[in-house]
Each structure stands twice: as structure tokens, then as C-alpha cells.
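Renewal narrative, Specific Aim 1. Our central claim is that a sequence can be written position by position from structural information alone. The example that follows is taken directly from our test logs and has not been curated for this report. It begins with the C-alpha cells describing the chain, in the order in which they were read.
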């Protein structure tokens, strides 16, 4: 979701920078608005969506005290998150 949201914001930024001077509403805005406008609108929406739809990582503990995280791959492999838990 993060990659899609950021690419959409970049797409709109490129569109408005290129076509902004020819659009009726955007014609009266300063050039900086073409660059910052899509980010100022899109980033809060993206952050809200990411916070609302969090995906927690499943964590497991080894007998030695290591923290392991299940990473989504084709095969289930435990990957060490850190050496030891204090």
C-alpha cells in the first residue's frame, strides 16, 4: 500500500508540474504549489490508511532468548531479529 500511495502522489506531482500552468484552477497558484500540493494532500491520507490497516509481524521467541520474525516468503523461514533480548 505504501508503494502504491507514494507512486500515485509522484504521478500527480509530475502531472501538475507539467500541466499546472494550463489548468484553469492551478493557473493562479504559484509554481511551488505544483510541487508540494499533491504531497500535502496525499501524505496525510496515506499515513491514515497505513495506521488504520496495520499488519503486525508474527514474532516468536527461541529457547535461547533470541527474537525471531516470520517473514512472508515462499518457504517459512525464521530470520533472527536481534541476537539477544535484554
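The sequence written for that structure reads:
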Amino acid at each position: 500500500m505504501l508503494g502504491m500511495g507514494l507512486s500515485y502522489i509522484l504521478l500527480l506531482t509530475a502531472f501538475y508540474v507539467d500541466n499546472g500552468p494550463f489548468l484553469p484552477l492551478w493557473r493562479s497558484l504559484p509554481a511551488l504549489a505544483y510541487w508540494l500540493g499533491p504531497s500535502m494532500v496525499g501524505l496525510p491520507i496515506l499515513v491514515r490508511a497505513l495506521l488504520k490497516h496495520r499488519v503486525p509481524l508474527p514474532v516468536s521467541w527461541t529457547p535461547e532468548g533470541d527474537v525471531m520474525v516470520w517473514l512472508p516468503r515462499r518457504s517459512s523461514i525464521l530470520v533472527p531479529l536481534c541476537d539477544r533480548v535484554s
